[in-house]
Structures are given as structure tokens and as C-alpha cells.
Amino acid sequence: MSDTAVGTGQEYDAAPYLPVRGGLAAYRRAAAECRGCPLFADATTTVFGRGDPHARMLLVGEQPGDQEDRKGEAFVGPAGRLLAKALREAGIDEEGVYLTNAVKHFKFTQSGPGKRRIHKAPSLREMTACRPWLEAELRLVDPKVVVVLGATAGKAVLGRSFRVGADRGALLPLPGVDGGPQVVATLHPSAVLRADDREAAYAGLVADLRVAAGAL
């Protein structure tokens, strides 16, 4: 494959980069070479999911942050540390979950004297392009419960009409999958860190995670 994104005209698409067969390790190796949308060009690396390959709970965030992009590992920055704390408080063993993102490359802008990299939300086209990787992770891990963290992850899993405020904290079906995992939506931990009332936002995150734990 060339270094130009697939479908730079009308559509972006990661599907041509998926392996024909194999488990999570094969998909992780293949994702490192993904050129399915332009985000690969500025990101340091592809950040694939991590965790228990047979987890009963799979958590989906938006995209890697600055630290995740530099380290090549999902949820290792401030939001990841807060999520780990919330999982413990909700009675969930972090070692027994699988953590991933709807988009596997860090999208950012740069500003200021040091050209600090500032998170920028992925577009619908970029989310759609990356969806084959997320679908593969859902299929291979086969969790009982999926937790979507924030609006982007919610739209990627539940559809464009998803709204965090309206849909959070309830057990929802995974669209298009009969007998599939239940889905619980909540805030992204980065939103908790930005909240004016951080204590209340954190308590809401823990409460939603307890709903997910109760469905296991």
C-alpha cells in the first residue's frame, strides 16, 4: 500500500489494511501499517487496544491522547489514570478488561511557543474509516458488556443519534447484533478532568461503571 490514505476523494477506509485471519496480535501488527485515513501522517504511532483478550468488559474511548500517542499504548495519560481509579472504585479489576479507542491515531492541532499538541475531535469520516478495527476488536474479544466513554465513542458504537446526557447509565443493546453485548454509556474521563464540578462528574462516572459491573 502507498503512504496516501485510501479513498482520499470521497471515502476513507481502513478495511483494506485488516488481516485476512488471526487474533488480536495479528490485528495489532496490521494496524501499525494502517493508512486508511490521513491521521496516520502526523501521529507518532497507531495506538491499538490493550488488555485481557477474553475480557467480559470492553471499554471504548474516543482516540489516543498525547501521552498515548508517544507511548503507543491506550489510556496511559491523565484520563487513563483517572479511569483506572474509577474502575477500582466501581469494583472492576482493570487487569480483566480490554481498553481501546474508536479512532486509533491521535488527531491534534499545535499552538503556543512550544507548539503544544492539543487534542482535536475526529471527524465522522475518520471515525467511519477506523470502524473496521473496532468491529474486529469487538468480535475477537467478544465481551459481555461494552462501556462507551463519551460522545465520539458513543456515536461509533451506538450510532449518530447518541447523546451522552440522554443515554448514559442505562443498559442498551448493541445495534445490529442479536444476542450481543449490552452497552453502557458514560462520560469520558477527560471530561471529568475538565468539569467545573469534578467531584460530581467523577461520582457519575463511577455510578455508570457500577451499572456496567452489575451486568456482568
Chain-averaged pLDDT: 92
The percent range for helix content is 25-40%
CATH superfamily: Uracil-DNA glycosylase-like domain
Number of domains: 1
Give the CATH topology: Uracil-DNA Glycosylase, subunit E
Segments where pLDDT lies below 50 for 5+ residues? 6-10
Total beta strands: 8
Strand content: 15-25%
CATH class: Alpha Beta
CATH architecture verdict: 3-Layer(aba) Sandwich
**Count of DSSP-assigned helices:** 8
Class of secondary structure makeup: alpha/beta
What would you note in describing this structure?
The protein is α/β, with parallel strands linked by helices and 216 residues long. The protein is 37% helix and 15% strand. It has a single domain, classed as Uracil-DNA glycosylase-like domain (Uracil-DNA Glycosylase, subunit E, 3-Layer(aba) Sandwich), CATH 3.40.470. The chain contains 8 helices and 8 strands; from the N terminus they run αββααβββαβααββαα. The protein is globular.
Please give a handful of descriptors for the protein shown.
15% strand; two-stranded antiparallel ribbon; alpha/beta; 216 residues; 6-stranded mixed sheet; Uracil-DNA Glycosylase, subunit E; globular
SSE layout and pairing:
Elements: H1 24-31, E1 50-51, E2 57-61, H2 66-71, H3 78-89, E3 97-101, E4 108-111, E5 116-119, H4 124-141, E6 145-149, H5 151-158, H6 164-167, E7 171-173, E8 182-186, H7 189-194, H8 198-214
Parallel strand pairs: 2-3, 2-6, 6-8
Antiparallel strand pairs: 1-3, 4-5, 7-8
